[in-house]
Each structure stands twice: as C-alpha cells, then as structure tokens.
Amino acid sequence: MKHVTSVSLGFCLSGGSAEEDPKQIGLTHLLEHMLFKRTKKRSTFDLACEIDCLGGEINACTDTDELVLYGEVAGRDLSKLFILFAELLLDPAFTEEDLVLEKEVVKQEIIESFDDPDSAAFNRLSELFWPGSSFGMPVFGRAETVASFSLLDVYERLENLLVGNRVTIVAAGDFNEDQLRQLVSKLFGELKSGVSFKSPIIHPGAGVDRIIKDVEQVQVALAIQSVSPGDLDYPKASLLSCLLGGGMSSRLFQDVREKLGLAYEVGSEIEASKVNSMFLVQAATQPENAKKVVEVIDRHLLDLGELGPSREEWERSIAALTAQCEMEEGVVSSKMWRMLETFDLFGDFHSAREQAEQLRAVSFDGLRDYCSRELLNKPVAMVLAGAVKDIEDSALEKRIVEKGKF
Fold it and tell me: Across the strands, what pairs with 209?
C-alpha cells in the first residue's frame, strides 16, 4: 500500500478460550497479559518504553479462537515492531512475582465486567446460549480459575500455541516485503509443528434470565444462532444484521429510538467465531420502557422471519455494507485484520472487494428465504440486566420459557 506511510502488523496464535476446559478458562487471556511483563533482554519498563517510542497502537487480544498481537507503526519501524513481538513470544522471562501482580490486574478486569450491566448481560447470555461449553464462559475466565493458575501453566500454554501450524503473521501498509520474509524466516522458520486447533461445534441452548443491578437503566440482550464467516450464507446474515439494527435507517434504530424515543443505544450484530456464532440484539433503556423495547424487537424479528425484508431494505443494506468494504481498502489496520481473519478461516486472503461482490450477489428472494430459515423455530436466549426487579414479563420471555424458540 504505497500511498500510506504506516504499517500494521499482526501475529495470530490459533487457539483461544474455546479449547480450554472449565478448570482452565481464562488461561490464554492471562498469557496475553503475561507476554508484556518481561523478556530475557528487557524488563517490564523497558518494554513499555519501547512501545511508547514506537508510537502508534500496540496491543494484544484474546477471543474464543485465537490470541493476537497487533500494532500499527511508521513504515520504517516494521523491523522494530516485528522483533519486539518475536521477543515477547520466543524469549519470555516473566516471573512468579509478575504472575501474582497480573492475576490481580485480571481480577480487577473480571470485577469491572460483572459490575457493568452490559457486560454482565452478555456474559450470562453466552452462558445460556452455549451451555456447558467454554464458549459460554468469559474469555478472561473466572476469579477462581485465574487464581489457580501456576507459572508453569502459563508457560505450557504458550508452548502449546507457539507451533508452526498455529502461527499466522501478516502485514499491510508501507513496508519492504523481502525484509519481512527474511525476519519471518530468521526468527520463526524453525518452529516445530504441533496439534492444530479445531474449534468444537456447540449446539445452542435457550433460556431467559434477569440480573438485578443497582443502576438506572436496563440492558436487553437477545441471541439467536447465526451462520459463521466461512458459511456461504454469511453475506445474507450480514445483510440481515444491517437492516435490522446496523445503521440509522435500520428497523430497530428507526422504531426504538427515532419514532418512540425509548433508547439511546439499540442495534444488532453477529458475534462471530469459526464455527459457533450468534446473532445478537442489544438495547439499553429505562425500566418502564424495557417491556416495550422487547416487544418491538420481538415484532421485527417475527415480521422478518414471516414476511422478510422489503426490497428497499435489501437494496439499502447492500449499499451500506459494500460502501464499508470499499472504504476499508485504504485503511492499513482494517486490511491487516481482514488478512488475519481470512487466512485463519480459509487459509488464503479474501479481500474487501471480494466480500463486496458476495454481498451484491445476494438476491432479494435469497435474503427473504434466509430470514425465514434462520429466524423462525430457532433456539433463542434473552437476558435483562440492571433495574429489572419490577418489570413485568414480556410475551417473548414467556414464549422462550415455554417453547425455547420463536
């Protein structure tokens, strides 16, 4: 991308919380934290200074399917960032004292999440929707599991992840490709092979729950199973999410916010992983409005399942998502993340232009058929969190309890 002056670099280790058993939940996330503590060459403070001096954004994240180190720096600094990431992975030297401190940091992260009604609602929703599996547990783990991890546990988890068939390295932006290839070959060329990560297929559950919090609002969260990014129907799922709650002209934004004034935030999205994905609808409102908000969500989901979207909604959602794809082409961080995600899913790069063509290929009748198949008679879970004590049960909640589906 010669028209830019920065480079975005990503190191992906395939295998996240999805392959952790209940006693291990949160181990990969703790490893993510520990990687930045110290190496054989640099202290915690030395690493922090190097990161600050490079500027840009340098961080890491863990989800169900992978642990990712990523950063965006000036193009001239690619080798410095690459060597830094390689050092974190290949020459870690974090200690027992580091582990004690970082466990406390993660503990605070867990407490913060459960104090927040939005996060609490999503965590409980995941537990209902993916019952008995690591997908239903928070990626950062639980206080008791994190407290139980030893230093050896963390190092062994890194050893399991850092094998050749689990590591993907990508870069986008202004850089010398030959230089990058030499760095990869020199520092990672002799990685041994190991056990590949295969995400387990989980059958979704159904249920309703309420979480009482001493706050002013109620968080509404609802989940239905969705197809995953590798599925041929994923473009249709993306269009459905867009027209239901993905923009200002979407059904939920127009009804819940613009016409009724019931919420500031309302929308839908696909919480996607390799094989287990959920179609997520969320809103935040005052207690006296919560039942009405749920009724509006219920009405639109049933309407889309039974009648499908209008032709105008189909056209508008295709226009919105293809425009987003076109704008993404010039953003180095977006291209880097697309490379990581598509290599992980397909073993090859699928560009934003290819995605735009797949969206344009979705017919009106094809989208209507998808809505009917995927919204009706499917397991559904819903959680209300916040000031929920005196809210009357909605018809949707009663239907989920009785039938477990729409």
Answer: 383
Predicted TM-score (pTM) of this structure: 0.93
User: Which SS3 state, helix, strand or coil, does residue 282 take?
Assistant: strand
Residue 150: helix, strand or coil by DSSP?
coil
Quickly list DSSP for 69-99: EEEEEEGGGHHHHHHHHHHHHHSB---HHHH
177 near 15, Cβ under 8 Å? no
Q: Hey, is 357 helix, strand or coil?
A: helix
pLDDT tens digits along 330-355: 899 999 999 999 988 777 888 999 99
- SS percent in the chain: helix, strand, coil, step 5: 50, 20, 30
- What is the bridge-based pairing of β-strands 207-212 and 380-386? parallel
Phi and psi, residue 156, nearest 5°: -65, -35
- As a whole number of angstroms, the longest Cα–Cα distance in the chain is 64
CB 359 within 8 A of CB 233: no
User: DSSP label at 254?
Assistant: I
* Pair type for strands 218-226 and 277-285: antiparallel
For the beta carbon of residue 299, count every other beta carbon within 10 angstroms: 14
CA distance linking residue 160 with residue 193, whole number of Å? 10
The CA–CA distances, whole Å, from 77 to 82, 173, 185, 361 equal: 9, 12, 18, 41
- Domains in the chain (CATH in brackets) are 6-188 (3.30.830.10), 207-403 (3.30.830.10)
Task: Report how far apart, in Å, the C-alpha atoms of 324 and of each of 310, 328, 331, 338 are.
Answer: 21, 6, 11, 13
- Measured between alpha carbons, how far apart are the two ends of the chain, in Å? 47
Residue corresponding to tokens 């060459």: 41
Residues 110-129, mean pLDDT to the nearest whole number: 94
